[in-house]
Amino acid sequence: MLKLGPATLVAAAFIGPGTVVTASVAGASFGYALVWALAFAIVATMILQEMSARVGVVTQRGLGENLRTVIERPSLRLPFYILVIAAVVIGNAAYQGGNLTGASIGAEGLLGTHSFSFNLWAMVIGVIAVIVLWQGKYKTVERTLIGLVMLMSVAFLITFFLTRPDWLALVRGFVPRIPDGGALTMMALIGTTIVPYALFLHADSARERWQHTETKQALREARADIATSIPIGGLITLAILSTSASAFFVHQLTIQGPADLAQSIEPVFGRFAGMLMGAGLFAAGISSAITAPLASAYALTGILGWSRELNGKGFRAVWLGIILIGVTLSSLEIRPLTLILFAQVTNGLLLPLIALFLLLAVNHRAMGQYRNNRNQNLLGFIVFLFACLLCARTLWFAFN
After folding, report:
1. Which has the closest alpha carbon to 184: 42, 399, 389?
2. What is the dihedral of CA 322, 339, 346, 99, to 10 degrees?
3. CB 49 within 8 A of CB 226
4. Quick one: what percent of the chain has pLDDT higher than 70?
5. How do residues 146-172 score in pLDDT, each as one tens digit?
6. Is 196 in a helix, a strand, or coil?
7. What 8-state DSSP symbol labels residue 371?
8. 25: which of 71, 137, 221, 226 lies 20 to 30 Å off by Cα?
9. Is residue 164 classed exposed, middle or buried when 0-12, 13-18 and 19+ CB atoms within 10 A define those classes?
């Protein structure tokens, strides 16, 4: 029987507007040539998320709390705390703006535009996120996000099959190669899949889910959950990439934004094309709009030693602040793609830092017999090196 759990929150986190945009550009510009990069990103995500879930299950503490234990020197704690808080909380505030902007594009595709001077749909979606999180129940959050992931699966996988992908080219895409001009897109595709804040989210959600379960059984269930949920997220991204490749790359057309994806299924669905892609983008945006504030609250309360209860005052104050900042950013006169891409830049800068902290936590003595073995550390180090390359690429792109 298929049982989805905390890893579904991770899938919901990385299948956001940034992923839709990046996968669309990858497919439109390079066809199926970068499918292998997506496959690598999914494997790398599974490696890091397994470590994160293991930390949460074994220690029954979130990643933020474990990092307080890892940094033992008092002189290093303050700058360390400031660095992580700035990275996760401020980065997620920017990310939230992109999430709400992307979800707004989807809502407009479904229900039409509005004449207000502010982003009405961002406010509506922000209110939905507040309602879900205000319940203060992990099960409510998990079930909501599972439903949104299933909606994305239906919307994007239908487009995948109806646009008749080139199956041979798709299979060939798993052979690693970087097409001319494809290096930046390759790194972007990896960076939009391996989401730094999802590591905080997974550790705490795994702790919540398996706090009364024997450790070995909990780890078996957590790994089975990862092996199911993360590949589902990868399949959704592959469907978006393939849809774009079939509609744009084959016909040598360019793509300007996620709304252009409707053109890819217009010959099949006619006027319903915009509605179908709108539903997928709306689900992608709102799922990330829930997970980003939640992860920020887990990270900040864990580092500061506050209550991690979902209905705690401090916990609510953090995620509510992130949502308000996101709504404000999405309502400013900023081009939607600019905001979404800016969120992806912050993502690339955060990843090496958070990956390094995770490796320190999973090798700490508090993990006992469940610390990383040599092979796990080797795999983690390889992912960390790719994260550093992604960070370097992001800095080069930003200053050149």
Report:
1. 389
2. 50
3. yes
4. 80
5. 888 888 888 788 878 877 788 999 999
6. coil
7. S
8. 226
9. exposed
Select from 156, 197, 398 the least CA-distant residue to 295.
197
Joined together, the tokens standing for residue 216 give: 């070995």
Find out whether 233 and 149 touch, Cβ atoms under 8 Å: yes
Whether 36 shows a pLDDT value over 90: the answer reads: yes
Tokens 């092996």 belong to 227
- Cα separation of 333 and 346, whole Å? 20
Coil vs helix vs strand at 268 = helix
CA distances in angstroms from 136 to 131, 379, 391, listed in the order given: 10, 36, 35
Side-chain-facing half-sphere of 81: CA atoms under 13 Å: 16
Task: Judge whether 34 and 185 are in contact, CB under 8 Å.
Answer: yes
Integer Cα distance of 387 and 354 in angstroms = 10
Cα-trace Rg, the chain = 20
Q: Which residues contact 118 (CB under 8 A, 6 or more apart)?
A: 331
Cα(268)–Cα(275) distance, integer angstroms: 13
Are 282 and 106 spatial neighbours (Cβ–Cβ below 8 Å)?
yes
Average pLDDT over residues 191-198: 83
Whole-model pTM over 0.70:
yes
112 phi/psi in degrees, rounded to 5: 95, 170
Map tokens 């319903």 to a residue.
Answer: 272
How does 254-278 read in b/e, with b if 16+ C-beta sit within 10 Å? ebebbbbbbbbbeeebeeebbebbb
Residue 6: pLDDT over 70 = yes
Q: Report the C-alpha gap between 195 and 189 in whole angstroms.
A: 11
CA distances from 51 to 29, 205, 302, 313, 383 (A): 34, 13, 18, 29, 12
Q: Which helix (H) or strand (E) holds 83?
A: helix 74-85
Contacts of 383 (CB under 8 A, 6+ apart): 44, 47, 48, 194, 355
* Mean pLDDT for the chain overall: 80
Tokens matching residue 241: 């990439």
